[in-house]
Design a protein that fits this description.
The complex is a heterotrimer of chains A (451), B (391) and C (544). Chain A has 451 residues and is of the alpha/beta class. Among the domains of chain A are: 109 residues, Response regulator (Rossmann fold, 3-Layer(aba) Sandwich), CATH 3.40.50; 31 residues, no CATH class. Helix content of chain A is 38%, strand content 18%. In chain A, the strands form 5 sheets. A 7-stranded mixed beta sheet of chain A has the order 7-6-8-9-10-14-15, sandwiched between helices. Chain A is globular. By secondary structure, chain C is mainly alpha-helical. Chain C has 23 helices and 7 strands. A 5-stranded antiparallel beta sheet of chain C has the order 4-3-2-1-5. A two-stranded antiparallel sheet of chain C has the order 6-7. In chain C, a hairpin with a 5-residue loop joins strand 1 and strand 2. In chain C, helix 13 packs antiparallel against helix 20, helix 14 runs antiparallel to helix 15 and helix 17 packs across helix 18. Classes of the chains: A alpha/beta (451), B mainly alpha (391), C mainly alpha (544). Chains B and C meet through helix 6, helix 7, helix 12 and helix 14 of B and helix 16, helix 21 and helix 23 of C.
Chain lengths: 451, 391, 544
Amino acid sequence: MPTASISSTQVCAHRSKALSRKVLASLAVSTLSLAIAAPALAQEDPIKVGILHSLSGTMAISESTLKDTMLMLIEQQNEAGGLLGRELEPVVVDPASNWPLFAEKARELLAQEEVDVIFGNWTSVSRKSVLPVVEELNGLLFYPVQYEGEESSENVFYTGAAPNQQAIPAVDYLMNEVGVERWVLAGTDYVYPRTTNKILEAYLKSQGVADEDIMVNYTPFGHSDWQNIVSEIKQFGGAGKKTAVVSTINGDANVPFYRELANQGVEASDIPVVAFSVGEQELSGLDTAPLVGHLAAWNYFMSVDEDVNYDFIDAWYDYTGDDNAVTNDPMEAHYIGFNMWAEAVRKAETTDVDAVKEAIIGVSVPNLTGGYATMMPNHHITKPVLIGEIQDNGQFSVVWQTPSTVAGDAWSDYLEGSRDLISDWRAPLECGNYNVVQGSCGGGSDVASSE
Amino acid sequence: MPSSRLWLARPFGERSTLIFLAVLGATMALVVAANLLLAPEHPLHVSTYTVTLLGKYLCYALLAVAVDLVWGYLGILSLGHGAFFALGGYAMGMYLMRQIGDRGVYGDPLLPDFMVFLDWDSLPWYWLGFDMAGFAFVMVLLAPGLLALVFGFLAFRSRVTGVYLSIITQALTFALMLAFFRNEMGFGGNNGLTDFKELLGFDLSADATRLGLFIASGVALALGFLLCRAIVVSKLGRVCVAVRDAESRTRFLGYRVERYQQFVFVVSAMLAGVAGALYVPQVGIINPSEFSPLFSIEVVVWVALGGRATLYGAVIGALAVNYAKSVFTGVMPEAWLFALGALFVLVTVLLPQGIAGLLSRSRQQGSDDDSDTQPDTPTDTLDATPREATP
Amino acid sequence: MNSIAGRHWLSALVLLCLVALGLGQAWAQDAGASEAASSDQGPALLSALAESSFRDKEAAIDAIAESGDERARRWLESFAEGKLARVKDSGAIVVVLENRGRNWPVADALTLEPAGEISRRELDRVSINNSLRGYLDSTLALIDLRVDDPAQRLAAARDLLGEVEAEAVDSLSELAAAESDPEVAATLEQAIAIARVEQGDVAAVEALSGSLNGQARAALMQASRSDDVALAEAAQAALAESEQALKLNRAAETLYFGLSLGSVLVLAAIGLAITFGVMGVINMAHGELIMLGAYTTWAMQQLLPGQPGLALLLAIPAGFLVAALVGVAIERGVIQFLKGRPLETLLATFGVSLILQQLVRTLISPLNRTVVTPEWMSGSLVINEALSLTLNRLYVLGFAILVFAALMLVMRRTRLGLEVRAVTQNRAMARSMGIRATRVDILTFALGSGVAGLAGVALSQLTNVGPNLGQNYIIDSFMVVVFGGVGNLWGTLVAGLSLGVINQVLEPWAGAVLAKILVLVFIILFIQKRPRGLFPQKGRAAEG
């Protein structure tokens, strides 16, 4: 069995810009790289950056732009002289939206390619699949997407939002500024919406919202027939109290959902929908004219009026060769994550994983909204929370913003099991699930400590 | 019917089986040796990463053998064998989940993490017993077996055949996928089961355990292959082939067709379950996407590619496609689907008997072989309007 | 003037005028504009709008609305669309004409003449939010109530339902009394009644009794929770009046939902019913042919910018052609070599589907494409105040029926249909009668593929247009064909529609996921009972 040839599969830098040229280029360059793999390695060795985003399958729609973002950032870094005087080399693999394949590819990146850092993943399940591998092989993973929290790994850095950096401020805004009293929590049936809604339910009840004023609804992935649910939402909203929909509906299902909203005449002024998974990229598949005024909560919007943001967008236009390309929140997360990692490498003067892990805590880099992001000891970062309303050009206009940045919570204060847990990866604690009540590491429910 | 001992031993008389077992055994021995004896710097050293990868392929190969048994020899094109594979995987996953014990992030000694943060206060009844390895391993066989039994009982008794059967097997796995996606089901929803620590007390991240699992997968494949071969060459197998080629006529001859179908279908489902159970600890996750109909179709594609109704062809197909996938997704991440798609098209058009057909043809040219090892060339029974069947 | 200081205004309007006056003069000098501009209050009004906080913008809106300036409406509309912006350096207010890309074409807000392009970095958008937009809507509606066109007055009156402020009730009552159009008057009366009920007026409850209008019911529901017992009871009684009618309407709505979902299933499956049911070819690339139809719609809209409706109509023949041509290519390139081996076709077309998907991803984009819904397909058809049918789905339903009828005509009334049926029943016999079976194969496959393309055109109005579009429909399509009975177009129609209705009836009760699972289990059990579907093929050819 030809096993040795896997290890020689050198993956190359993709610098092709035009979309149509990508395949040709990747074919040509990969053939080339097969031939020159050995000499290339023999020269001074570059810093390898693994990119683990699906380029095919259902998640390609979201993840492929993140791959391009990473390639652009690496290219920019190389033009600026690389890092520690060494060239950066991207290693792209395709986990094909297949969760076991994510683990396998992560192992390939770490064990075969020996990359120094991985930027990747979108879905929670893919992160969960990769997590044991990254921990076992002591890699570094930067995860750029908003997620459900309830996790803290020594080897993972969460540059997307935790629920307290997105969901709770958004609900606060609706409650205080819009005067919403009745809530529909609609989401796709997977762990992120489940957990977020659980947290929101607990939060809303703590704010005095009655049970009958909360409606929870779950739909399968890629749900395309929203007639009944939108009709139910209309009914629920017709009870004489200001109603809002908090949507954790995932990716593809949003387009038919919003279309149905528009066609059944649910307007933002009657029943606003605030979404946590709908960004500029999701809207780019949609005619937004009927959706003006519906909301989204993120830590970044493309429309943010800051020069640093315009610079990033212009670079992205140039890189994609498309002046209609959009940027979104996870791209900003990669921008922050990449710069943090680069800063930490400079600080540690090495790409050694343990040194970088130690150096990165406390590192501050500019974000794209005119402020700074800092890596916290729990491997989450500080972010501002922005509420934006959909415009007719597929962009959001910011209508509200937290006065300062919010630090991400690994463990929610509103969930039974995680209330007492904190995460702090600095010495001497070095624990991802420290129970402050029992003063022990390892989650620590009552029975566990008695054993 | 000859006595059971003889019945199981019969495949050893076949040259093709012996060759297959020899090749499998030799390759495995080489891989193990190259992993253990050669230094990591040695160019021929096989890393543990590769060993695990190969272990995964072997599980897929066993699944392909199970599909070939019902498709190649019984004429049932199952587009839902992924369901049995996943059920076996889930049974193993549940055992591995229980083995985590209080090492989960919340440190709950009884409940898996996903139940803790969804506020479940007790273990659902169907999770009971999975802390015992023996029970779990029995369930690996029983869960897919029972599903196949019930499904087969309904389907074969009412003589659902051909394309209708294929489509409802697809409906079955699709329905199960949707069901397992539901978080209320208590199987972890979309995230599935993951973060396993140990199996039978062995640390799953240890190299030795990985090697052990690889060997176990190889042994399971060998045994599964032997069992299928034994079924195929027995009288039972001959009846199956008769059912495949002319179901009505076999029935008129007095055979209780549905019983044969039922038996072989259940055996095949159990084999798929075993494959799933060995697969899960090696890839480290089981989630509902294994139930996806596309995966099941892909398995059929492996079998067709390798050569239907040969069993060893299924193994070759599974290994070849998955190896190609592993390489292509790394070498040309944006174009590998073109390569894979083109492979399927070209092989079906140019190699109707699959790779096995190519092998046997070249062998036939070389020397006259005994007819026993020739792949049986099945006629299609899936045709919606089977003109061939009308006399 | 900044937003914080703005909060301390005692009388927003008075101060605003004072400040506006000052600013207006300053601006006029600054710009050195013509003598007409010096008396122009426009700059002041707009700057006030641009610079005040969300809280104070209502006052600025009022000032503009009451200014009597003929450009007021245009300003407010631009503001509502979020198109007003202030140039950072000069402070001049402009209307953004197109807000995509790096540089935006703008028009001067005062002259409304195009003023070239400005980098988006130089612009400060005048932001707006939902509550302001609502406020603007009712402000504009109040203006519109005085126009001559009764249709526009009616629309304005409808906008006012549930939006009437307490202070406006009296002036509205006068308007309603003077209103000549009875429908407008009735709507206004209702709007007033809603406002009165919201204020706790028991007498007004009577006027809303039995109303199916959502706003009216909302007001009644709110009243029914009131502490005032008399009001609460009256409101409950008024609500009960409409309960029965509401139930009927909901049942009708569910049926419509079901038929609509069913029509989508029928459209997706009917092409398969031809290639798979009639020809016996299992085409796994069927979903991708649907996808190509949807992408054709997108491409047509790209070719004809600004005319989404025309593009959509043209996409119907174009989508059919594109999918049919690709279908022929698949037939000639792959399937013809696999005659009589349907399982191998399954395998090969699965490969084709992978290639087509990735082709779209590479050549066009892995991202979803925007397909615009034309004006005449947006919104809904109002049957009564509790029941309205979404137009896009209504069109798709009609389209599905049309396609089905056309297909039936082709199969029953044309030479091709006759030949197809002949070849299906007995290929050898048909050939010996002089029918060129190969040609029939090609045409049938083209027909089935083309219909898949039509499905894609229709689906582009309902769901994502992206590379995965086809995958989402292939399994459902197979289910529908098999449930209906392979080789029977009527079966496909009945199966699609009934599965749609079953699904939608189950959904409110079981939830979307469980409903889908139940439908699948139902199909599995049904096939056990009737192994050849709803309408089994009869005759010799059907015997296995």
